[in-house]
Write a structure and sequence with these properties.
elongated; mainly beta; two-stranded antiparallel ribbon; four-stranded antiparallel sheet
Length: 86
């Protein structure tokens, strides 16, 4: 499994690759779901559109988009202290 986090221009901000193992499901079970929690402490350069690009076994790639907005803060409008990205 490979996971990349990219900005709206496709620039890679973070990338990770690894292996995931699942135990054999009980008899008669044909579908398996597995939830995953990804934690990144990554300062984002600006509000906008970002995406996770996930590929399995070097094959199909899945894209999960997300939007980042800026929360108002105590600093001057438009300045670097003007808020935090969420």
């Amino acid at each position: 499994m490979r996971i990349r986090f990219v900005d709206d221009e496709g620039a890679k901000l973070v990338e990770g690759e690894g292996t995931v193992h699942f135990g054999e499901p009980p008899a008669g079970v044909t579908d398996v779901e597995a939830g995953a929690v990804l934690v990144f402490d990554l300062p984002l350069p600006r509000p906008g559109t970002y995406a996770f690009e996930i590929s399995l076994d070097g094959g199909d790639e899945y894209r999960v988009p997300l939007s980042v907005g800026q929360m108002p803060g105590p600093g001057p409008a438009g300045g670097p202290e003007g808020g935090t990205l969420h």
